[in-house]
Amino acid sequence: xxxxxxxxxxxxxxxxxxxxxxxxxxxxxxxxxxxxxxxxxxxxxxxxxxxxxxxxxxxxxxxxxxxxxxxxxxxxxxxxxxxxxxxxxxxxxxxxxxxxxxxxxxxxxxxxxxxxxxxxxxxxxxxxxxxxxxxxxxxxxxxxxxxxxxxxxxxxxxxxxxxxxxxxxxxxxxxxxxxxxxxxxxxxxxxxxxxxxxxxxxxxxxxxxxxxxxxxxxxxxxxxxxxxxxxxxxxxxxxxxxxxxxxxxxxxxxxxxxxxxxxxxxxxxxxxxxxxxxxxxxxxxxxxxxxxxxxxxxxxxxxxxxxxxxxxxxxxxxxxxxxxxxxxxxxxxxxxxxxxxxxxxxxxxxxxxxxxxxxxxxxxxxxxxxxxxxxxxxxxxxxxxxxxxxxxxxxxxxxxxxxxxxxxxxxxx
Length: 413
Description:
Elements: H1 16-30, H2 38-55, H3 57-66, E1 82-83, E2 102-105, E3 117-120, H4 122-139, E4 148-154, H5 163-175, E5 181-185, E6 188-189, H6 191-204, E7 208-213, H7 214-227, E8 238-242, E9 248-249, E10 252-253, H8 254-265, E11 272-278, E12 281-286, H9 289-295, E13 303-304, E14 309-314, E15 328-334, E16 343-352, E17 356-363, E18 372-373, H10 381-396, H11 399-407
């Protein structure tokens, strides 16, 4: 639902208030992942709340219903968190959407026919690029300036309305070598490019990065098992998959997934990084595993909470914060969400850890119960997964014959 009201001039997109706020947010992000200033975070979050309260009518009505206004909020925890499902019912943008540079769909996992839209103006795009660029560098490519990246996703030209495709184009251009490429087109999976790249990496010793949705990798691994094919990628190769982990996902457990990464591609578990991305939250949440490994730290796998975000786990009934280790709903506060709402209450189940949080599934919305359903994929939700299912399965049927052909090529090193 789109509310047609004039924005207060002091909060307009070209106002000094918004320009100064964007400068403050960007400066906070640019201070890096070791920077922590609770006072600065609190001040900026409350300033964003003031902007969003006055510029997003449905959010203002929600806050008034909750009995919280900018004058009453004293700390970031006071800011009302919008349920993620609200993005499917309302346009939650703090600026006129005709000025958007980004416009793409939320996941629609619960109901793929009812999808929300995410809008970002040009200045907000700079915020998300700064935030996720620094995180990708630290947690996916800390030891490689650039490397060849194979993206097991559609390109943004093929899927312009899917946030995962838009975000990964930025990753390709910022961290990939010129030969980096997308593996999925309208014709399906470019299986020849994938297999040839894996063979070449084995022969040359140049590490390779594979990035895509978790189901896509599982389909490929299953096909390799069927045809008894495996590779030994060079040291430093890595896999970054998008989607929340839980006890079961795709067609295997988390432990089985890591075992296939090792046995089929030769990539050890500490070079397998999962990222949780949501359309409703600008910042991505990366596994700590590669960063911990390179630093020689012994730590359980968990999602890192960057300094410009806060994540709480709350009770499903009263939304009170839960102790570390107890499973509840994930609530995120993200300063990079200036163009939307700074606080988002998700229906994802997870728990806090000593260093961050972990996700275990999506709440089935049964009062008093923590039953979880499986989550697959990330920004693209069911639409992305259905596209990948169709485009991969068809071409993977010929994996064995293609591998035999390519491995016998005289020009294969």
